[in-house]
Design a protein that fits this description.
The complex is a heterodimer of chains A (470) and B (350). Chain A is mainly α and 470 residues long. In chain A, 69% of the residues lie in helices and 0% in strands. Chain A is built from 17 helices and no strands. In chain A, helix 1 runs antiparallel to helix 2 (26-42) and helix 8 (188-221) runs antiparallel to helix 9. Chain A is globular, with a radius of gyration of 23 Å. In chain A, 43% of the residues are buried. The mean pLDDT of chain A is 90. Chain B is 52% helix and 9% strand. Chain B is α/β, with parallel strands linked by helices. Chain B is globular. Chain B has a 5-stranded parallel beta sheet, with helices on both faces. In chain B, strands 5-7 form a two-stranded parallel ribbon. Chain B has a two-stranded antiparallel ribbon with strand order 8-9. Classes of the chains: A mainly alpha (470), B alpha/beta (350). Chains A and B meet through helix 1, helix 8, helix 11, helix 12 and helix 13 of A and helix 1, helix 8 and helix 10 of B.
Chain lengths: 470, 350
């Protein structure tokens, strides 16, 4: 059930009506949300619900064991068991065929391999997201950051809440469980924020992401048929597509939760205004970035063990972050690439490294452009189907034009300019919702404008959200 | 990934402000958006019905209007746009002495619309002597689209009745309902065109639907060699991957037409659309058509009166083609006469 379908709109209206009818009985509301979440998930494939329920049950029980036991060995064993089971389920569905392929290739190098069969495994949507939620919960309980959840329904809702089930944001137990276990108060601000986030999310997805996607698809699917400038436009188009798509999804997810009284974390903070790689990861897929930092990078030692170890930890974290996105070498390459530029940036940030003296505004503008170019190269690694394609596309970049270049320029800039203007205003105010400071009549005008933009300019055949595959 | 401790300098990463908003102001903004969306939809329903720039839908609406307004005729012609401007009822009258009404619409309406039209005709008129159903080869594999189905002026319940083979799930109903009652959502493309035409004061091109006469025939006076050539290139490409399949919707609708013919006693003729010679000469087309004809003949086996005409489609030169499968009025006259000849071979009684 995609957020962009009429089915979802009707589903959400029914759920919201039932939910508010039960106010202030928040436990009953939780039951409604839990049932709705499983129905929502079952729309993809009802069998996915079984895996979700199994994974939820194991983590719930292990959380209780960790919390109730004084025996450190037992606590550790329960935590390890929960994490291993969660990762094994994810590993089987997401990575089995990848590793089988690599093993077969390796054996063939040594003349040992024959043919092997890959299993027809369908990755249940959202599995990568809810697995990370469960792992963070187990680790936090183990570290004593908060008490294990005693109510199975509350915990099940934490894992499966439909707003964030299939593509995040990756919410922590310490943030969401207290909201689940208390009556929600929906303020006027929540309602307006919710409506705005939903509208703006649809705008990002349908007007920006889906309209620019044909350019990205054409160039990436047939890069050999295009010329230098087309490569750049294709990369630019993909940067807009993936941002519109994923930031749009996150915005809708946060909006539908906000109207129900839940505050989900911000996942995107104008990432293309980043000035350096470190800044980028404070703005792009923020909840994943924070998860990797808290549960992987810091666990590896973070920056406490010297420069070399810090850099190794960074690279390793980013490689695994790339691998989280999918079982393919290009995702690993993408993660590794971001690891390398992060390491490079850390080196460059040292006071002893001499830097050119430029006027602050010029330096800021140049760093944003430079970081955007670095990001574009990263998107080639992310989107390409093979290493050949990555090198093929990057080596073709230039200014030669094909007969389709003009059309590509029009499409890409028609999407990029309005987005840039909106985000430039948000960035200049350092506020993602600057319109809330306006008079109501201006806010109304802005929302009607977004609605009309969706109606007039939105792609009608909305594509599935890119991040569902992860 | 951020690994740096926050520095004590002006932040550059934006956040969300949380001002206190009064209930009144939120009522105005959120209520205003909802009210705007509701009123815009309400206003657009009649506007889009009258001024839609979608000429295909206009043709559909006009043909359904003709069906309800025209008295009984001897021959009812249904099918896609190739028949719309390919079968001239006046020529049929002249050659066979039988009155005819051309109710052909557009390809996206598929055989489903033909079946619905014949059902409605039989409900409101005396059964005709003959039904001619004409389609281009690439219509057969298409499947039903809710937006097209919504153009048939039946209630949702009636649509369900005439499409018993379709899974009438929530998505199906939602598709019909949104197509009809949420034009801001479902007809955004047409709405966008309408706004663009109005703002730029662009004169809408002569509408195809306006060329339809009282007998339903669409007169296309001029040939268009450039269009024929570009269209041929598209068809050549399409044929590379096109399989000779018949969608369930088309198959079931065709079976329904056969059933009606057998029950009501009218002759039913399925006719391959006239095409450009250049297309007929393509080996890929010939292979595709051969496989398709075999499948259609298999479905037509239970038919008592009538048959399948032109399993090898009649082809025409560039001078009488508007595009690769649409004739000019001169070509239509020739094609209709060939059709009459073929029908005479089957129906010695007429």
């Amino acid at each position: 059930m995609l957020f962009t379908t009429v089915t979802f709109v009707v589903f959400y209206l029914l759920v919201a009506a039932t939910y508010f009818a039960l106010t202030p009985r928040f436990r009953a509301q939780n039951v409604v949300l839990l049932v709705a979440s499983y129905v929502f998930y079952g729309f993809w494939d009802w069998r996915f619900c079984g895996i979700l329920a199994l994974s939820t049950s194991i983590n719930f029980i292990c959380g209780l064991i960790i919390d109730s036991s004084q025996d450190e060995k037992k606590r550790k064993a329960a935590a390890a068991f929960a994490i291993i089971v969660s990762l094994s389920i994810l590993g089987f569905f997401k990575y089995y065929n990848f590793f089988a392929d690599q093993l077969a290739a390796l054996l063939q190098v040594f003349g040992l391999g024959g043919t092997h069969d890959t299993l027809k495994i369908v990755l249940p949507v959202g599995m990568s997201f809810y697995t990370f939620k469960e792992i963070s919960y187990i680790i936090d309980v183990y570290k004593g950051k908060f008490k294990a959840e005693r109510n199975p329904l509350s915990f099940a809702l934490y894992v499966s809440f439909f707003a964030q089930l299939v593509a995040g944001p990756i919410e922590r137990g310490s943030q969401l469980l207290p909201q689940i276990n208390a009556p929600r108060k929906v303020s006027p601000l929540d309602i307006e924020m919710g409506v705005f986030l939903i509208l703006y999310g649809y705008f990002l997805k349908l007007v920006i992401g889906d309209n620019v996607s044909p350019v990205a698809n054409q160039v990436f699917n047939n890069y050999e048929g295009y010329r230098g400038l087309d490569m750049l436009l294709g990369m630019f188009a993909y940067a807009l597509q993936i941002y519109g798509d994923f930031a749009g999804y996150s915005s809708i997810a946060r909006g539908i939760a906000r109207i129900l009284g839940f505050h989900l974390p911000i996942n995107f903070k104008l990432p293309y205004f980043s000035r350096n790689p470190s800044d980028f990861w404070q703005r792009w897929h923020v909840t994943l970035s924070q998860w990797l930092r808290d549960y992987l990078y810091i666990s590896l030692g973070g920056n406490r063990k010297g420069t070399i170890r810090t850099n190794v930890n960074l690279l390793l974290t980013m490689l695994l972050g790339g691998f989280w996105h999918g079982a393919a070498w290009n995702f690993i390459a993408w993660g590794g690439y971001h690891g390398v530029i992060l390491v490079g940036h850390h080196w460059y940030s040292k006071p002893e490294v001499k830097k050119p003296t430029l006027p602050p505004k010029l330096a800021s503008g140049l760093s944003i452009v430079l970081m955007f170019l670095f990001t574009l190269v990263g998107w080639v690694l992310f989107r390409a189907h093979s290493m050949d394609q990555i090198f093929g596309m990057l080596s073709r970049i230039g200014f030669s034009r094909s007969h389709e270049t003009n059309g590509f320029i029009k499409t890409v800039f028609a999407c990029a300019i309005p987005l840039f203007l909106i985000e430039w205003y948000q960035q200049s105010k350092l506020d993602l919702v600057p319109q809330l400071q306006w008079k109501p009549v201006y806010r109304l005008g802005a929302y009607v404008g977004i609605l009309l933009a969706i109606a007039l300019l939105g792609a009608r055949q909305a594509t599935e959200f890119i991040y569902f595959q992860f | 990934m951020s690994t740096e401790a926050p520095k004590k300098e002006r932040p550059t990463v934006p956040d969300e402000s949380s001002p206190v908003l009064s209930k009144r102001s939120v009522w105005l903004t959120v209520g205003g958006v909802i009210l705007f969306a509701f009123l815009a939809n309400l206003a657009l329903i009649p506007i889009m019905a009258k001024c839609t720039p979608n000429s295909g839908y206009k043709i559909v609406h006009k043909k359904w209007q003709l069906l309800s307004e025209t008295p009984d005729v001897d021959i009812v012609i249904v099918g896609d746009s190739s028949g719309d401007q390919g079968v001239d009822p006046d020529v049929l009258k002249q050659e066979l002495g039988l009155s005819a009404l051309n109710l052909c619409t557009v390809g996206d309406m598929m055989v489903l619309n033909d079946a619905a039209m014949v059902e409605e005709y039989l409900r409101t008129h005396t059964a005709p002597k003959m039904v001619i159903d004409l389609h281009v080869y690439d219509v057969w594999e298409r499947d039903v689209a809710g937006s097209a189905l919504a153009q048939i002026p039946f209630s949702v319940g009636q649509l369900k009745q005439v499409t018993p083979w379709i899974k009438h799930d929530f998505d199906w109903t939602a598709d019909i309902v949104t197509s009809r009652y949420l034009p801001l959502y479902s007809e955004s493309k047409s709405f966008k065109q309408l706004v663009f035409n109005t703002l730029t004061r662009k004169k809408a091109r002569t509408d195809e639907a306006d060329k339809i006469g009282p007998n339903g025939f669409l007169r296309q006076e001029n040939s268009d060699p450039d269009l024929v050539n570009s269209d041929l290139a598209k068809h050549t490409e399409t044929l590379q991957n096109l399989k000779a399949t018949i969608s369930d919707t088309n198959k079931q609708a065709l079976q329904r037409l056969i059933q009606l013919s057998n029950e009501k006693g009218f002759s039913f003729y399925l006719v391959s659309a006239p095409i450009y010679q250049g297309l007929a000469d393509l080996a890929t087309f010939q292979k595709h058509q051969k496989e398709l004809s075999a499948k259609l003949e298999e479905i037509l086996k239970p038919l008592k009166n009538g048959g399948y005409l032109f399993p090898e489609p009649r082809s025409f030169p560039m001078e009488v083609m508007q595009n690769v499968d649409h004739l000019t009025v001169t070509g239509a006259e020739d094609f209709t006469k060939q059709l009459v000849e073929e029908i005479r071979k089957h129906e010695s009684g007429i």
